[in-house]
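Hey, resending since the last one bounced:
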Amino acid sequence: MSNKHTILLVEDEEESGEMLANFLELNNYDVLWAKDGKKAFEYIDDNANDIHLAILDIMVPHHDGKEICKQIRQHPVIYDIPVLFLTARDEEKDEIEGLELGADDYIKKPASLNLVKAHVETQLRRRSPDKSNWIQYGHVYVDLDSKEMYINDELIELTHTEYTIAEMIFQNPKLVYSRQQILEKISDEDKFVFDRTVDVHVKNLRLKMGDEGKLIKTYRGVGYGFNKEYLHA
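The structure tokens again:
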């Protein structure tokens, strides 16, 4: 399989299914399109390691979307992937039942292709199942593509400067950086920033990281770097 996110799409309506599958593929997703529950179960059995998210219509032949959702939540590999119900059924009790079954989102038809894509992107950002270009130490993940930090899969709201310092330290955990080296990295063309500004940014970064702030160590008389006690954590 490719490095793209793979979506399991279960939709029995030919026209709408084809449109959505093609649209998602044009937006750099791989799509496994099943037109009934039986085919969905086959895709799950054969491709579980590659599926990142599921979009399920409720009313499909053989096994409906609710059964497929149950199967996903009980599966040892994909039990925690985002599941979106995309359905014409708009009664409140159906939505509540879907969410109680473990669905993460519920989109009523008709929904625009861009709206579906926005929901998909939101769920994938929250779960972030593909960490192939992430740096990980313990519960901390630094996403080198989106320039974001997650702790226990929760996004940590960092400023650009705070993220830059974190990436610098996490990418090179064996190095210790002086304040001047960090300053040159974060100040761009502004040469009038005081080097003690670095201390403030590091302090704020540690506070936002909570208990994981211990990963960034002050090396007295030198500067800042990764806490080598946790290098192999």
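The chain has two domains: 6-127, 134-230.

Sorry for the duplicate.
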